[in-house]
Design a protein that fits this description.
alpha+beta; 2 helices; globular
Length: 172
């Protein structure tokens, strides 16, 4: 019984929890790319209410930027819920790419967020009406060196990241 019970968990215990493959604290420099725009941020130590805290900010001025810090943390929380190895990356629409580097500038890894429209599904018992096909749904996926294939992520977290990218890159 003791030998078999761990095997009963099956696939649920095999899910990749951390798609990055490196410790978050080692990611000192982050390059954010979306379209033709790029922004580099760096982990800095800032004093908040008399305490030193690690956060992200502008590498030139070493000024903390809470919007950027929240954005980087939100993207870090994009975790795979399932994998779709049949999807081709070339068929997906890129949203943004984050490249992580350590304190010496050596690359640790990348995370690219993609989206695509998943075909709509017919409700059970309903026939296809060619004039009114079922509406598709936007699905978000990530690809990292560790995932290797497109991995579906939570839509709400990915949408928030996509909405925030404009604010982060404009610095407003």
């Amino acid at each position: 019984r003791e030998m078999v019970s761990p095997l009963e968990l099956g696939e649920s215990s095999l899910h990749l929890i951390d798609p990055h493959g490196f410790d978050k604290d080692k990611a000192v420099k982050v390059t954010i790319q979306a379209g033709d725009r790029t922004k580099m941020v760096e982990r800095i130590t800032a004093t908040v209410d008399g305490h030193d805290v690690k956060t992200y900010g502008d590498p030139g001025s070493h000024k903390a930027d809470q919007t950027v810090a929240n954005f980087v943390d939100n993207v870090w929380n994009l975790r795979p819920t399932e994998y779709d190895p049949d999807l081709k990356v070339a068929e997906l629409t890129p949203v943004m790419k984050l490249t992580y580097a350590d304190d010496r500038g050596d690359a640790l890894g990348t995370l690219t967020l993609y989206k695509h429209e998943k075909p709509g599904e017919l409700p059970p018992g309903q026939e296809l009406d060619p004039a009114n096909p079922p509406k598709g749904e936007i699905e978000y996926l990530i690809v990292t060196e560790k995932t290797r294939v497109p991995a579906v992520v939570r839509k709400d977290t990915a949408e928030r990241s996509e909405q925030d990218i404009e604010t982060v890159l404009n610095g407003k």
